[in-house]
Amino acid sequence: MNVLLVDDEDQLVSTLAERLELRGIHASWVTNGEDAILMVKAREFDVAVLDVKLPKIGGIELKRKLAAIRPNLKFLFMTGHGSQEDFDAGSREAGKDNYLVKPVRIEELIEHLLNLVQAEQKA
User: What is the C-alpha separation between 31 and 55, in angstroms, rounded?
Assistant: First the structure.
């Protein structure tokens, strides 16, 4: 599985990537939407994990841009804000089961990633 993590908190996103790698999931990471767009144009990813609140290009808008580039890319959203507005926006874009609140437990993240990839393989 090839995952792209996008979060402006570089310590968080680098730690998540490292923890996924230790569990056999290849994870690349960037800290802004512009770099995420460049990565998705250059490489194939199974899932993009997007922070809802990103500078310049927010997670919801970024999801739309990435999906236009790679229509088969799956998405998870995460946020540290946990507002109803963020939940509603993330749920509309990726489904309520694909929305995580920080701090994200690595086991929960992996479970969601596996569910997304397995759902694609069954389709």
Answer: 9
